[in-house]
Design brief:
The protein is α+β, with helices and mostly antiparallel strands and 415 residues long. Helix content is 26%, strand content 21%. The strands form six sheets. The protein has a five-stranded mixed β-sheet, with helices on both faces. A four-stranded mixed β-sheet has the order 12-17-16-15. The N and C termini lie close together (7 Å).
Length: 415
Amino acid sequence: MTRGRPIDRRPHATRGRERWGCSRAWHRRPRLPPAPAHSGAAGRRIAAPPACRVSGARWLASPLGSASVSDMTATARTDDLLFVDSETAAPLAPIGSTPVGIGAAIASVGVSLPATTIPNASISARLGVGEDWIERRTGIRERRVAEPAERLADHATQAARIALKRADVSAEEVDLVLVATSTADEILPNAAPLVAHALGARSAGAFDIGAACTGFLSALAVGCGQIEARRARCVVVVGADFMSRLTDPDDRSTAAVFADAAGAAVLCATRGSGRIGPVVLGADGAGAEHIVVRRDEAVVRMRGHETFKAAVSKLSESTLQAAAAAGVDLDEIDLFVYHQANGRILTAVGEQLGLPPERVVDCIGDYGNTSAATLPLALALSDDEGRLGDGDRVLLGAFGAGFTWGATVVEWGAS
């Protein structure tokens, strides 16, 4: 694709629903024979990995040393397979230009939600407000909340397991597991090693990433970097938070907003299109006092007015920066998927940037603010609803405590 291509203005519901929904069942074909070994940059023999078909990129390679992958869905092309033939990766090409070097693609997404739903009617009386007041102020009608016996690591594992299944990637092929969370079940260990163990990712490194509501995007940047540097072929990125466990039930500014969920994405290496563009990240510690959880009380305190202003400003700014870094204009982006912090923030960002409302994902009404889980959750819902089609450009943007923020443009599927 090139800059300036005509935008398909058909309703998103008619664009690629049958091909790109998260619930798509894969048609299976016989396995491909293993690719031959070849010489690496230093003259050593390197076993070329078999290819695997996934929903976010054309042909993606399995990790070195893996024996097999799931059944194939198309005919193999040797020039699409990835070989480690150089110690230096080529620079990442802007979205829409001819791909250069190895990039990272989102192969699939998965979500795990607690079963318990809490509507506004269940909390409005305690907060001394009406149900409609909560929805007007936040855009939220109900939210999912984990029961005391539920563990974040279990939901993170389930989301990752779903994503791996949809990508036709086995746990043994995973090189790295990243979990973005501020609410791990224990202070130590991190959630990521528990998730990797539960998945059976025995060859994977694993660690957690903070950054609050920007956590998933930050983990995405780390995973992309590992793939682009050829230190990994397949990375599982999880965003999971049980924010209800840090919420004061009597605090109007947080009790009606935060919720619980886990979402995951599988990143795989690609030489083709369908890759993640440059990730723009920013931080300003001067805003730290506006969203804080102190050890002595272990509940989140948020100054809503200051947070609102900063979120709108930084999400708008990083959107423009990410689009410029990817080499696309805003009107060439098909869908804008922002951190689902507050419905009014989503509206304000869209108005400030002049975005058509139908291109800005708003799913906070049924799920609340799930912190690091909102981006993968919003992606999964958009995919299931048929709003993501082959070749669509999707902007991901987030803002969170710290302050931290960031954005990137993703090319969905292969062109």
